[in-house]
Specification:
Layout (H helix, E strand, L loop, with lengths): L1 H12 L2 E7 L3 H9 L1 H4 L9 E7 L6 E7 L5 E12 L3 E8 L10 E10 L2 E9 L4 H24 L1
Antiparallel strand pairs: 1-7, 2-3, 3-4, 4-5, 5-6, 6-7
Length: about 160
């Protein structure tokens, strides 16, 4: 029984939670996540360029994205939208495409948007990682993406 508890505790530690406050109304921050022309302005870590983003923002709708790294490698990911409560919450699956065109294991992303004194507090959660190392890699990438999101929102 102790072994099961240890495994369960380890998986909880593999959850990624990032909270950021943006100097923008939550309606705009929500649109920056759900409207392709806006997502294309900020998606990807520092030095990455968004090549494509499509989303059908309704439960059961799909989404996919492709981005290019500074060294020219192209990365793709996709998922299914599970929940949309505009402008409060967005929930979707997230999986990376592998070299053969298949997709790896899926994680679950939940983003909530709260108005705080005319600004937006965004709480980003991603669960279902296979390891702490995988979680930490995503922390770095998402943190850099959110830096780009803050720049985009400041210029909008």
């Amino acid at each position: 029984m102790a072994e099961r508890s240890s495994v369960a505790a380890a998986k909880v530690e593999w959850e990624l939670v990032i909270t950021r406050v943006f100097d923008a109304p939550r309606e705009l921050v929500f649109k920056a996540w759900s409207e392709p022309e806006r997502v294309m302005q900020w998606l990807g870590p520092k030095g990455f360029t968004a090549l494509e983003f499509e989303m059908n923002p309704r439960p059961g709708g799909g989404w996919h994205a492709r981005m290019r790294s500074p060294d020219g490698a192209v990365y793709a990911n996709r998922g299914i939208v599970h929940e949309v409560v505009e402008p409060d919450r967005l929930v979707f699956g997230f999986a990376w495409e592998d070299e053969s065109g298949g997709f790896g294991s899926e994680t679950l992303v939940t983003i909530s948007f709260a108005e705080v004194g005319g600004k937006t507090e965004m709480t980003f959660s991603q669960t279902g990682f296979a390891s702490a190392e995988d979680r930490d890699g995503h922390r770095e990438g998402w943190s850099e993406s959110f830096d780009k999101l803050a720049e985009y929102l400041a210029s909008d």
